Amino acid sequence: MTSNEGPTPAILSAIAAQSSDTILRFLARQRWFAAKGASPTSARIADVVVLPWGNGELAIARVVVSASDGDHQYQVPLASRRLSHPAERSDEGSGSLRDTSVVSTENGVTLYDAVHDEEFRRGMANALTAGLTVTGADGVSWIAEPVAHSSINGDGKSRVGAAEQSNTSIVFDESAIFKLFRTLKPGVNPDVEVARFLTESARFRDTPALLATTRFETAEGVTTSGMLQAFLPGSVDAWSYALDRGRPYFSAPVGRDVANAFVEDATRLGAVTRALHDALASDDNDPAFAPEPATPEDLDRWALRVKRSARDALALLERQLASSSLQKARAAEAQALVRRQDQFLAWIDELDESLGDDLGMQIRVHGDFHLGQVLRLRDGGFNIIDFEGEPSRSLDERREKTSPLRDVAGMLRSFAYAAATLATSVDKTLDMPTRELRSARWERDVRAAYLAGYLGQPDDDAPDILPEDAEHVQQLIALFEAEKAFYELSYELNNRPAWAWIPMRGISKLLTQPRASS
């Protein structure tokens, strides 16, 4: 299905009337706008593709924002309507367009984010199912391409997801979910690339199947703009699920211990994580995914990055101590960490030296793995989602191969945050020693269960991706945990100082954690 109709003046006139300030004010209200902290100075519509449905009142625009750290590009579907009430096209509730989604209202015409327009969503469902190419006047093409059969149709129900931070999701017929990328970056998108590999090549069942993609094509190249995947009704994110399962453990009266109900789930999650890594390493013939031996030079690079992260975090901690901006209750612990900087750096060097060349393989990994990137299904299983990697990194960096144990370390740090969150939730009903004890035990047991699931017997046909020596496995995990914890410390000091104690506690444990024997 192809369309090359020219642009419709109505929507183009509405878009052309928008000033830079108006566009910036609209963007500033969006949760997915990532340039808020980069002092944006101007915004402009780079190009527009008018869609062939909606009587010329629907389009997809690419917006370029200039900021102190360079230009940022965003995808904004737009609808231009004469509305008697600014929320009448919205099914998210009265006022949703008026509050966040309206760009402007001029001469009786309201320009707003089209994801909140039912007609836009109906046309998108049809385009994702049948395929569509639309070319704008400036030569930019917007392409929807099916990957696998989906049962969605334009006459079915659709809704906009409410939990997104960096993208926008549209759920069709409770059977498929379209992730519309807001931040656009030219090149191979790792989320789509990995989802396609897991769906078509590895046949991995524990991630939602990829059904369709959307992209922009210009003379300069291709930019992925969205992906349609199978929707898993009744699923919940594993972060929320872990907290729900952990509350009875933490809220039990003093002196009455209850079972840690998340332990079995953690074991299952560990096994699913290992199955994911085995799947990502399953094709020696695909250069983008073929596993490669990790070398001592790779280890030196990893260790250098951890040391850099440690120096930066501890320097920031020392500055906050000097300025008295750190919580007084945390000052003594912070001072102890700063004094131990040389010990941390020497410990990293010791790991580097002792690991030698027994480092396992480098493979494609999740890249930003934590409980929030996992769905707990109604049948008790887990699905892993969101393979876009750390948003702050370039696409090339996100596609780099590395040790699978980096993902493992990320999940272990997520358990630490879950334990801390659960302990904080009962600070008014439990004394501190009891909270501390339960937090330590809950995290210890969940960690052990997860690692048991991950390090258990892999499939006979699975590739050998880990170091041969069990102690080296533990040492690599510790190295990557250190990197994550020091990164968390910098992040929390800059953004959520009240939470800085969580990575501080994790860093304090680094030099004392037990190591597995050979």
Quaternary state of this entry equals: single chain
Q: Measured on Cα atoms, how large is the radius of gyration?
A: 25 Å
CATH architecture of the largest domain: Alpha-Beta Complex
Mean pLDDT: 91
**End-to-end separation:** 60 Å
- Can you count the helices? 15
CATH class of the largest domain: Alpha Beta
Structure explained in plain terms:
The protein has an 8-stranded mixed beta sheet. The longest helix has 27 residues, at 296-322. By secondary structure, it is α+β, with helices and mostly antiparallel strands. The protein is globular and about 65 Å long. The protein contains 15 helices and 18 strands. 42% of the residues lie in helices and 19% in strands. It folds into 2 domains: 2-230, no CATH class; 236-509, Aminoglycoside 3'-phosphotransferase, Chain: A, domain 2 (Alpha-Beta Complex), CATH 3.90.1200. Helix 10 packs antiparallel against helix 14, helix 12 (405-425) packs antiparallel against helix 13 and helix 14 runs antiparallel to helix 15.
